[in-house]
Amino acid sequence: MSNYHIKHLEEYFQVYRKSVRNPEAFWEEVAEEHFFWRKRWDSVLEWDFTKPEIKWFDGAQLNITENCIDRHLRSRGDKTAILFEPNDPKEEAQHITYHDLHERVCKFANVLKDQGVKKGDRVVIYLPMIPELAVSVLACARIGAIHSVVFAGFSSTALATRINDCEAKIVITSDGSFRGNKTIDLKGIVDEALKQCPGIGSVLVAKRTGAKIDMMEGRDHWLQPLLDKAYADCVPEIMEAEDPLFILYTSGSTGRPKGMMHTTAGYMVYTAYTFKNAFQYREDDIYWCTADIGWITGHSYIVYGPLVNGATTVMFEGVPSYPDFGRFWEVVEKHKVTQFYTAPTAIRALAKENLDFVTKYDLSSLKVLGTVGEPINEEAWHWYNDHVGDKKCPIVDTWWQTETGGILISPIPFSTPTKPTYATLPMPGVQPALMDENGKEIKGNQVDGRLCIKFPWPSIARTIWGDHQRYKDTYFSAFEGKYFTGDGALRDEVGYYRITGRVDDVIIVSGHNLGTAPIEDAINEHPAVAESAIVGFPHDVKGNALYGYVILKETGESRDRDNLKKEINQMITEHIGPIAKLDKIQFVPGLPKTRSGKIMRRILRKIASKETDNLGDISTLLNPEVVEQIIEESL
Ligand code: WTA
């Protein structure tokens, strides 16, 4: 069926035109032919971006795990669903078949039920990349509980904020995690977080590292004995199309993270469709996405998209540098990976190392390479193309967001000619628009502007958990009647899109979205700090790194500056996690401000990037004299 699996460029244009001319007919056709529904929908789409309210396949009933697992049992029961590659290459990989997955998910679902978890309850999952992570996500979906996975690199404070924001009643974690040659005490972080979370009645603990941990009587339970006793079948909860499937937090421009809420039917249809097309997935492929399931990429393209298609999806516990910088390629050779999907920051880090780490492995199984998370620079693109893909594998530069649920702009491999640094063309059903500062759409090619989407696609987030007003303000207020992405983009002479980066207060460091406000809040809690401002500056591996400008209180002035810098980064590690640490910290006497008291980040960004020739007009600032001094002492 050509709608579902595009095979050449002309077909893409045909399908795209059809999808835009009549989106409802287009998505209805996709939904009818490739999924298992308990009840058909009454209407395909109802929407109003001014409220905003979006409903796809309203009236339909389904359970996404029946689509991910049960319906494959007859034809693919013994096929590997999840191929788990442990951190330590000496530990054997696990092939979890669709039959195994069914049993593991059902047992886990029954354990959750025994713990009192019901449809609509929130379950926070704080696990490393071990099979229990995917299994617990699916177990929640099986019984209609709403999962909220928190990336296991987040600190106890960040974890507590998320648990409390979604009012979860249970946390799933492990005794610890392996990352390269380190072990991390995850349970200790959970214990610390739970001091601030009165709503949590129970904690399920998977065993991974065997580290000695504290178990709180009555609250904490080892998972395995409960699974051993659980019944191996669990009738799926019948869900409405628009019932919530999960909440996933992303950074915003204020201190509170945004709990993006995704619903069931539209998310399923869109992630399955885009997985099939963006990776040209075929039945016997071995697909590997190196992301963590704690991010949206892992939700959509390790778990749901691949499993709905009956694919084999690799889950990797480790890091690209352990035991050495050849690990990715060793795993590709070992499992004969056909599609490989990673982040530009990983490519840049590996490109710095000796080429022998790549060339000593047989990478001939690869067919398609993907990237996601931030703009890929030309040099990294070519390195990936030349040395990993041997110039034979199309690179799909996939642009999308936590909010979009699935890939919105990407080449279709073997159909769309690729162009370095360009995400190229919209997926079928996706209608991008570039807007100018006055809110007018910029038509034609060879233009740039702010990237909006004019029409809903099935996996758009439906709200911010508990704060619909913020959802409206953040995404639907800047440009009337359109979804605003927060990114800038240009459209070249043939209509290809290139994403140029964030135009708001979010900075992408190593592919992780970081809001400036939460980092500033963390720093300002240091007793010696009066005020701070964070900006990004270019970094050759991370894409962007963080530069902090800090004003000390009088009490801090006499303190040792190096110690203060360490303490500031420690504050950030405790409040957010090590991913948000600052590369550079400059102590300043003041921050450039407008007359209304707003920090002029544009100027600070230029100083951090050493582009001080053209600062623009600073005479209207409240304190222009401070700029000169900041430049003189800049790092
Ligand atoms: C950025 C990740 C350029 C962008 C799936 C977006 C990209 C943010 C690309 C979302 C890409 C993602 N090229 N920039 N291919 N992919 N981005 O929510 O700024 O973690 O808004 O979702 O990452 O990050 P998030």
TrEMBL record:
Pfam families: ACAS_N, AMP-binding, AMP-binding_C. One of its GO terms (molecular function) is acetate-CoA ligase activity. InterPro entries: Ac_CoA_lig, ACAS_N, AMP-bd_C, AMP-bd_C_sf, AMP-binding_CS, AMP-dep_synth/lig_dom, ANL_N_sf. Its EC number is 6.2.1.1. Residues 70-461 form the AMP-dependent synthetase/ligase domain. It is an enzyme of class 6 (ligase). Keywords: Acetylation, ATP-binding, Ligase, Nucleotide-binding. The keyword ATP-binding applies. Residues 12-68 form the Acetyl-coenzyme A synthetase N-terminal domain. CDD domains: ACS (cd05966). It comes from the Bacteria. Residues 519-598 form the AMP-binding enzyme C-terminal domain. NCBIfam families: Ac_CoA_lig_AcsA (TIGR02188), PRK00174.1 (NF001208). Belongs to the ATP-dependent AMP-binding enzyme family. This is Acetate--CoA ligase. It comes from Flagellimonas marina. The gene is acs.
